[in-house]
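Chapter summary example.
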Amino acid sequence: MDAFPPVALRSIRRRLLNWYRTNKRDLPWRRTRDPYRIWISEIMLQQTRVAAVIPYFARFLDRFPDIQALASAGEHVLLAAWAGLGYYSRARNLQKAAKKVLELGRFPSDYSTIRTLPGIGDYTAAAIASIAFDLPHAVLDGNVIRVLSRLTGEDGNVDSSMVRSRLRAVADSLLDPRHPGEFNQGLMELGATICLPKQPQCLLCPLARVCRARQSGRQNELPLKSARPSPIDVEIHLLVIEKAGMILVWKRPAESRRLAGFWELPEPVQVPQARIGSRIAQFRHTIVNTNYSYNIFRASLVRVPAKFRWLSKDNLHEFPLSTAAKKALACLKKHVG
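The structure predicted for these 337 residues follows.
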């Protein structure tokens, strides 16, 4: 993979910045240089679509407007605010990092210290450092990897550490040191809106003239990746047990490997003495490589096991309910209606 000559580098930087300044989406986290808000947005955007993040971003900042508010929040309040975004270790790491920032006295303004905060890796540290503080650190996320692999004609597997290392070197060489934040966002925006995984919009791309994948007609083949594992199908039955305006739920323990601290509806195996009635709903929910099929049943129970709790329907919004529980209860409302 040959490096771009200086003339080509200058052209790439100029073309990308001009394109970004004209075509960038108006996203709320692009209207600020506040490292706190940029940090929150970057964590939310991990594994989550932009359209899904926008309303969460606004609500989260209304609830936790600064580091102090985030650091001092109760866990159930934090998880309730994050519920629906998934990957809940992100929220817990946000709070751990907020507490560390308070110890430091301010949000760190250098890459190395930002990188030490819990939940922040190379990409997030580079994004915050460049966007909030204009520091010359190149980002390398999924969108950027796709853009760079096509731009350079990289024919190695982008899941390999050797190829990632090569692409990181390319990102470092391309970065415009005068406008690092804008350049990084430009590359990410290009991957998100033009250099798409399937059917890239090459005719609209500002870098089409220098793109080696396009020159060789391989833009639909690159980047090369490892084959995805076959999906796993799992069927789950959940019970809706009501009493005087309350719903029976249970809380996942703090040591749970998944959704620790979240409230769930019971499954039949947890309450074998329950009398199961009619099925009121069925829905699917996918997490990474697992396709869950949920069947929701009404049920009744005379004696409630110790680990269960009745929650008022009117106060459910105050508790971190799992996405499955939320969907099931939404189905219940429709069924009643």
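To summarize the output: The chain has 13 helices and six strands.
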